[in-house]
Amino acid sequence: MALKVMTLNVLFGGQDRFEALLELIARQSPDVLVLQECLGWDDGERLRQVAATLGPDGSLHAHLGSARPRGSGNCYHVALLSRLPVRDLRVHNAPHFIGHALVQCELDAGGPLTFFGTHYDAHHEKLRYVEARYLRSLLDLDAFHEGLYLLAGDLNSLSRKDPYPVDLADKVRMAGVDKFGHPPRFDVIDDLEEFGWVDTLRLKPASPAWVTAQRVRNGIPIDYRTDYIFSSPRMAERLVSAEVIDVNGATDHNAMVATFRTHEPAT
């Protein structure tokens, strides 16, 4: 059996594009789905509609991870939906450590699977680095390397392994994009990979596509990847493929999808 995981930033709650988002989610039909920027989803109605898109009433486990309020007062919640039973759900949103919310739970995927869905801070790499270190504090290194773990979300961070142009620093400066630093920093993804997290798109890409955020600022177009699905080394052994899904305007981020076997490959 296969386990399909998807992460998608819906952009400011997605209300004005909600039908397009539902169609996209229905086409991909993930078994586990993480959504960021679920602004205004507090009444549960949009979460129920997404759940209904993925399965009959009562067949989906749907949870809204309450994000901490930003300076504007807005809460950019993180939603988690799963066809697998969800156990031991925890939401981390302490403002000293978390930009929005980190949803943690246990799933059964041919063995206990610890799953994290998140949305890192958009403002500065230093703040995102605090989030990466907080995630480390939740994990036992030996258990992580021997067990099944997944991390999915909009990390607002760059990977030095993606094919950025040699003049990225100049482009970012001319565009007036400060969130990654000058020159752009890769601290967060470096830290995750140093701990042992495996970037599924770099391990088994289904296509050459890698861009999840296409931006134009001050007339300067720049392609970025800020959305990821990471796995522990043992979970990476079950990876079938990972790919970027073109959302065709449904939101301003392309989706990331990774498919895994639910049992270890035969030796």
What does this protein look like?
The structure is a single chain. With 267 residues, this protein is of the alpha+beta class. 24% of the residues lie in helices and 31% in strands. It has helices at residues 18-28, 45-54, 125-137, 141-146, 168-175, 187-195, 200-203, 233-236, and strands at residues 2-9, 32-36, 61-65, 78-82, 87-92, 101-108, 112-119, 148-154, 198-199, 213-217, 220-224, 227-231, 239-245, 255-261. Helix 3 packs parallel to helix 6. The chain is globular. The model has no long low-confidence stretch (mean pLDDT 96).
Summarize the entry for a quick read.
With 267 residues, the chain is α+β, with helices and mostly antiparallel strands. The chain is built from 8 helices and 14 strands.
What is this structure's SSE topology?
Layout: E1 2-9, H1 18-28, E2 32-36, H2 45-54, E3 61-65, E4 78-82, E5 87-92, E6 101-108, E7 112-119, H3 125-137, H4 141-146, E8 148-154, H5 168-175, H6 187-195, E9 198-199, H7 200-203, E10 213-217, E11 220-224, E12 227-231, H8 233-236, E13 239-245, E14 255-261
Parallel strand pairs: 1-2, 7-8
Antiparallel strand pairs: 1-14, 2-4, 3-4, 5-6, 6-7, 8-12, 9-12, 10-11, 13-14
Helix pairs in contact: 1-2, 3-6
